Amino acid sequence: MAYTEIVITRFGDHLVSMLLKDGHPVEFQCVSEKNKVDIGNIYIGIVKNVVKNINGAFVEFDQDEIGFLSMRHRQYKAGDEVLVQIKKEATEEKRPMLSDQIELTGKYLVLTSDKLSVGISNKIHQKEKKQELKEMAEPLVTQEYGFILRTEAAKADKEDVLMEADQLSAKYHEIVSKRQYRKAPHLVDTNYDALEVLVHDIKPGSIDRIVTDQEEVGEQLKEKGYEVFLCSYMAGDIERRYRFRHYLSEVFKRKIFMKSGGFLYIEQTEAMAVIDVNTGKSIGKKNQEAHIKKINLEAAKEAARQIRLRNLSGIIMIDFIDMKSKDDEKELLQVMQHYLNGDSKKAVAVDITKLGIMEITRKKEKNPIFRQISIDILK
Description:
Elements: E1 4-11, E2 14-21, E3 24-32, E4 42-51, E5 56-62, E6 65-70, E7 81-88, E8 97-99, E9 103-105, E10 109-112, E11 118-120, H1 127-137, E12 146-149, H2 158-178, E13 186-189, H3 194-198, E14 209-212, H4 215-223, E15 228-230, H5 237-242, H6 244-249, E16 255-257, E17 263-268, E18 273-278, H7 288-310, E19 314-319, H8 326-340, E20 347-352, E21 357-362, H9 369-372
Parallel strand pairs: 1-14, 6-8, 11-12, 14-15, 18-19
Antiparallel strand pairs: 1-2, 2-3, 4-5, 4-7, 4-13, 5-6, 7-8, 9-10, 10-12, 16-17, 17-18, 19-21, 20-21
Helix pairs in contact: 7-8
């Protein structure tokens, strides 16, 4: 099993963490101390405007804070009060994405009012365990909410899972009841834990150690049961040992070179992320097709790494080098999915189009890293 380590430091008014597997960075997380709008927060909002042609409404969920709410579950009119939860951060072009379907996340379970059923984490593969968990959770489902069993539930005692279900249910009813006597707009619950974000939602016992030069953060993590090593911020210990600034600056680069001499060109637009694979100086003189396949397979691994490092999400298009063999294309799609399976977010290699472009979808919550933090802070 890979040696897992998390390094946490500060850049300006941002706390940034780097997840490493056997010394290699695989993911960054960023928490802004200025940002008051956090994913997961629940508000009583007031509908300001309804846009019928897109079946949505603009809701003031906090003082002078407006978000977009899809009306696929229920129709609203201006002046209605509605319980909403932030699902996606605002971007330069779009307001925060809201939902009237509430989710409460625990260690073992997610309570959700979106589906009145039992869901099981895709990372639980044993059929017998999945059936056992489903049978345990089905009696917990009500006419108001259902449950999703997280990966940790497979290793937990039944009593602990059921206890958490009771706690989440009580919290849900408390949140719903507040709607009756609080005036909109109003923050009802902060279902957001900055420490959980910084530890990449990894529980104590599943990580070898955390290294930080932020004393307060370190002490809080120790209280939660993590193995924490404190070092000096003023002495620059983290930069000297881990080259944090170097690895973080990589997510701002458009051009990423591979060992073969080929390279990836990465571009993020408002609609999608685009990755272009190029042979560069890598030229196969003998078997051209085998050489192209080799570069594409190398590019698939690096693309999956960059997608997670940069937190690219939504629709991702990868323009691989054209291959004549359909079997090679099929293999490339399977290999890509294999690498995506190691991601902390759900990511799917959907298809390869007739133009040879691979379509990928990845669950979108927070903005790409380069939009969460400025490269100027790293200089």
